[in-house]
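Task card 7
Instruction: Convert sequence to C-alpha coordinates.
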Amino acid sequence: MKKTVALAALVTAFSTAVGLAPVALAQSDLKSYYAGKNIDFLISTGEGATYDAYARALGRVMKKYMPGEPTFVPKQMVGAGGLTAANYIYNIAPKNGLVLGIVNNPVPFLPLLGEEHARYDSLKINWIGSAASETALLIASKESGVKTIDEAIAKGLTVARRAPAPAAISTPISSIGLSARS
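Output:
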Protein backbone atom coordinates (compact mmCIF):
# COMPACT_ATOMS: atom_id res chain seq x y z
CA MET A 1 0.00 0.00 0.00
CA LYS A 2 2.81 2.42 0.85
CA LYS A 3 4.46 1.77 -2.52
CA THR A 4 1.16 2.38 -4.31
CA VAL A 5 0.63 5.68 -2.52
CA ALA A 6 4.24 6.74 -3.15
CA LEU A 7 4.02 5.95 -6.86
CA ALA A 8 0.66 7.68 -7.13
CA ALA A 9 2.21 10.71 -5.45
CA LEU A 10 5.07 10.71 -7.99
CA VAL A 11 2.70 10.50 -10.94
CA THR A 12 0.46 13.16 -9.41
CA ALA A 13 3.52 15.39 -8.84
CA PHE A 14 4.49 14.97 -12.49
CA SER A 15 0.88 15.61 -13.51
CA THR A 16 0.77 18.78 -11.41
CA ALA A 17 3.94 20.08 -12.99
CA VAL A 18 2.59 19.90 -16.53
CA GLY A 19 -1.08 20.61 -15.75
CA LEU A 20 -2.52 17.14 -16.22
CA ALA A 21 -6.09 16.15 -15.32
CA PRO A 22 -5.82 13.72 -12.37
CA VAL A 23 -4.03 16.19 -10.10
CA ALA A 24 -6.54 16.53 -7.27
CA LEU A 25 -7.98 13.03 -7.36
CA ALA A 26 -8.10 10.97 -4.17
CA GLN A 27 -6.51 7.50 -4.10
CA SER A 28 -9.84 5.78 -4.89
CA ASP A 29 -10.51 8.24 -7.71
CA LEU A 30 -7.06 7.57 -9.16
CA LYS A 31 -7.83 3.87 -9.18
CA SER A 32 -11.02 4.36 -11.17
CA TYR A 33 -9.36 6.98 -13.44
CA TYR A 34 -6.47 4.69 -14.45
CA ALA A 35 -8.36 1.35 -14.44
CA GLY A 36 -8.37 -0.21 -17.91
CA LYS A 37 -6.38 2.65 -19.45
CA ASN A 38 -3.09 2.73 -21.30
CA ILE A 39 -0.28 5.10 -20.44
CA ASP A 40 1.89 5.92 -23.42
CA PHE A 41 5.47 5.62 -22.22
CA LEU A 42 7.55 7.57 -24.73
CA ILE A 43 11.15 6.41 -25.09
CA SER A 44 13.67 8.80 -26.61
CA THR A 45 16.03 6.08 -27.86
CA GLY A 46 15.77 3.23 -30.34
CA GLU A 47 14.63 -0.26 -29.52
CA GLY A 48 17.25 -2.24 -27.63
CA ALA A 49 19.10 0.84 -26.33
CA THR A 50 19.70 1.26 -22.60
CA TYR A 51 16.91 3.80 -22.05
CA ASP A 52 14.56 1.49 -23.96
CA ALA A 53 15.42 -1.38 -21.61
CA TYR A 54 14.97 0.89 -18.56
CA ALA A 55 11.59 2.10 -19.77
CA ARG A 56 10.24 -1.35 -20.59
CA ALA A 57 11.34 -2.75 -17.22
CA LEU A 58 10.01 0.29 -15.37
CA GLY A 59 6.67 0.10 -17.17
CA ARG A 60 6.20 -3.53 -16.08
CA VAL A 61 6.96 -2.61 -12.46
CA MET A 62 5.00 0.65 -12.36
CA LYS A 63 1.84 -1.12 -13.52
CA LYS A 64 1.82 -3.12 -10.29
CA TYR A 65 1.95 -0.02 -8.10
CA MET A 66 -0.22 2.41 -10.03
CA PRO A 67 -3.80 2.76 -8.85
CA GLY A 68 -6.05 0.99 -11.35
CA GLU A 69 -3.05 -0.91 -12.78
CA PRO A 70 -2.98 0.83 -16.17
CA THR A 71 -0.96 -0.73 -18.97
CA PHE A 72 2.26 1.08 -19.86
CA VAL A 73 2.66 1.02 -23.63
CA PRO A 74 6.26 1.65 -24.71
CA LYS A 75 6.50 3.89 -27.79
CA GLN A 76 9.71 4.98 -29.43
CA MET A 77 9.98 8.72 -30.11
CA VAL A 78 13.56 8.96 -31.31
CA GLY A 79 15.11 12.21 -32.46
CA ALA A 80 17.50 15.01 -31.60
CA GLY A 81 19.03 13.20 -28.63
CA GLY A 82 15.74 13.17 -26.70
CA LEU A 83 14.57 16.68 -27.60
CA THR A 84 11.81 15.36 -29.87
CA ALA A 85 10.20 13.41 -27.01
CA ALA A 86 10.70 16.20 -24.45
CA ASN A 87 9.25 18.85 -26.78
CA TYR A 88 6.29 16.59 -27.58
CA ILE A 89 5.51 15.80 -23.94
CA TYR A 90 5.70 19.45 -22.89
CA ASN A 91 3.95 21.08 -25.85
CA ILE A 92 1.72 18.57 -27.66
CA ALA A 93 0.89 15.50 -25.57
CA PRO A 94 -2.55 15.41 -23.95
CA LYS A 95 -2.44 16.78 -20.42
CA ASN A 96 -4.43 13.92 -18.93
CA GLY A 97 -1.86 11.83 -17.04
CA LEU A 98 -1.72 9.20 -19.77
CA VAL A 99 1.61 10.18 -21.36
CA LEU A 100 4.97 9.82 -19.62
CA GLY A 101 8.44 9.71 -21.07
CA ILE A 102 12.00 8.67 -20.49
CA VAL A 103 14.55 10.96 -22.09
CA ASN A 104 18.31 11.04 -22.44
CA ASN A 105 20.35 12.25 -19.48
CA PRO A 106 21.25 15.78 -20.68
CA VAL A 107 17.72 16.70 -21.82
CA PRO A 108 16.67 18.43 -18.56
CA PHE A 109 19.70 20.72 -18.77
CA LEU A 110 19.53 21.73 -22.44
CA PRO A 111 17.17 24.72 -22.09
CA LEU A 112 19.30 25.96 -19.21
CA LEU A 113 22.35 25.78 -21.48
CA GLY A 114 20.65 27.79 -24.20
CA GLU A 115 19.82 24.95 -26.59
CA GLU A 116 17.56 26.69 -29.13
CA HIS A 117 15.69 23.49 -30.08
CA ALA A 118 14.63 22.78 -26.48
CA ARG A 119 11.09 24.13 -26.49
CA TYR A 120 10.24 23.38 -22.87
CA ASP A 121 10.97 24.94 -19.52
CA SER A 122 12.92 22.45 -17.40
CA LEU A 123 12.07 24.38 -14.26
CA LYS A 124 8.34 23.82 -14.82
CA ILE A 125 8.60 20.04 -15.10
CA ASN A 126 8.85 17.82 -12.07
CA TRP A 127 11.37 15.24 -13.20
CA ILE A 128 10.33 12.05 -11.42
CA GLY A 129 13.70 10.34 -11.19
CA SER A 130 16.58 8.65 -12.91
CA ALA A 131 17.27 4.99 -13.54
CA ALA A 132 21.01 5.47 -13.28
CA SER A 133 23.70 7.80 -12.10
CA GLU A 134 26.38 8.96 -14.49
CA THR A 135 29.69 10.66 -13.98
CA ALA A 136 30.81 13.30 -16.45
CA LEU A 137 34.45 13.80 -17.28
CA LEU A 138 35.94 16.77 -19.11
CA ILE A 139 39.18 16.16 -20.95
CA ALA A 140 41.02 18.86 -22.89
CA SER A 141 44.04 18.18 -25.07
CA LYS A 142 47.40 19.70 -24.18
CA GLU A 143 47.18 21.76 -27.38
CA SER A 144 44.08 23.56 -26.08
CA GLY A 145 46.14 25.24 -23.38
CA VAL A 146 43.36 24.53 -20.88
CA LYS A 147 44.39 23.09 -17.53
CA THR A 148 41.51 24.10 -15.23
CA ILE A 149 37.75 24.46 -15.48
CA ASP A 150 38.17 28.22 -14.97
CA GLU A 151 40.43 28.37 -18.04
CA ALA A 152 37.92 26.32 -20.05
CA ILE A 153 35.16 28.77 -19.13
CA ALA A 154 37.31 31.84 -19.84
CA LYS A 155 38.48 30.53 -23.24
CA GLY A 156 35.05 29.26 -24.27
CA LEU A 157 36.28 25.71 -24.84
CA THR A 158 33.71 23.77 -26.84
CA VAL A 159 32.99 20.37 -25.37
CA ALA A 160 31.07 17.45 -26.82
CA ARG A 161 29.98 14.10 -25.55
CA ARG A 162 30.59 11.15 -27.80
CA ALA A 163 27.40 9.50 -28.93
CA PRO A 164 25.89 8.32 -32.18
CA ALA A 165 24.40 11.23 -34.11
CA PRO A 166 22.07 12.99 -33.54
CA ALA A 167 22.59 12.46 -29.82
CA ALA A 168 26.04 14.08 -29.82
CA ILE A 169 25.86 17.47 -28.16
CA SER A 170 28.43 20.23 -28.43
CA THR A 171 28.21 23.17 -26.07
CA PRO A 172 30.65 26.03 -25.59
CA ILE A 173 31.67 25.63 -21.96
CA SER A 174 31.55 29.39 -21.48
CA SER A 175 27.77 29.19 -21.90
CA ILE A 176 27.62 26.81 -18.96
CA GLY A 177 29.24 29.41 -16.75
CA LEU A 178 29.77 28.66 -13.08
CA SER A 179 27.46 25.66 -13.21
CA ALA A 180 30.33 23.85 -14.92
CA ARG A 181 31.93 23.55 -11.50
CA SER A 182 29.25 21.21 -10.16
